[in-house]
Amino acid sequence: MAALSTFLASLLLFGLGPYLAGARSPPGVECVLFNEEYMTCTWGSRETLTANYSLYYWYGKASPVVECKHYLQDHGISVGCRFSQDEIIQFQPFHVLLNATLGSRTMKILSKSMELQDLVKPEAPVNLTIHNVSNNQLQLTWSSSYPKAQCLEHAVKYKSNKDTSWTEHLVNGDMFSFPSMDHEKYYTFYVRSKINSYCGSTQLWSEWSVPVVWGSNSTSKGAAEEQLHWFWIHTVLVPIASCLILLVLVILLVRMERVWVILMPRIPNPSKNFDELFITHNGNFQEWAGVPKDVVESFKPNYSENICYVSELPPNNSYEPLWEGSNHPPSAVPGPTPPSKHSPYKNSYMGV
Question: How many C-beta neighbours within 10 Å does residue 308 have?
Answer without folding.
Answer: 12
